[in-house]
Amino acid sequence: MRLQRISEQQWYRTxxxxxxxxxxxxxxxxxxxRCNIWHVQGxxxxxxxxxxxxxxPLRQHVALLSERDLLAVASHTHxxxxxxxxxxxxxxxxxxxxxxxxxxxxASTLANQFLSxxxxxxxxxxxxSHARYRITAPQxxxxxxxxxxxxxxxxxxxVIHTPGxxxxxxxxxxxxxxxxxxxxxxxxxPLIEDLWHSDLSDYAASMRRLRKLPVRLVHGGHFxxxxxxxxxxxxxxxxxxxxx
Length: 244
What we know:
alpha/beta, seven-stranded mixed sheet, 6 helices, globular
């Protein structure tokens, strides 16, 4: 069955969360594949974490992202998270995946493996096609390191290196509000841990590191947000299932 085409104006959806955080997503992509794009408002500048598929211009169609001085951060470099990263002058990513972001291709970003009609409830407007899908590199890639602090003015987010799903995966931790933006290491849905560059030993170490944090609220890379209590359950269940 041929999929419906959706206009660019209808492609993105925004949902306000608590604590000045807004979810931006692409509702026409199926939930398992649908990347959560997070916008955090600070007193001096905003921050956007991840950028979706990039099949439809992001900043042009999401008014919240029209602000010029936005801190742009990629949780990792899989295609569903960095498609529109090039729309930001400088994109921050962990140093372990900086080369991928600086020169993205459909193999290293996994587009070759996953991009197909199976991902979609409906497709972007023409001329989009899977065969012509390519990711454009940002003008500047700014490497991040574990422990680095991202300053939004009245808000401080700590970079936590969480390898396992991918070598340069990161989470962002705001101690003041006990809020975790967890990327794809952990979310409330089926986790992907068997990619060519995934590592179960690293995965377990990253899980244990996040479990030590006094988390109140988690905003994952996919699926709905959830409580810190549920995070503890998910991590313990994952470690038990993997006997790690």
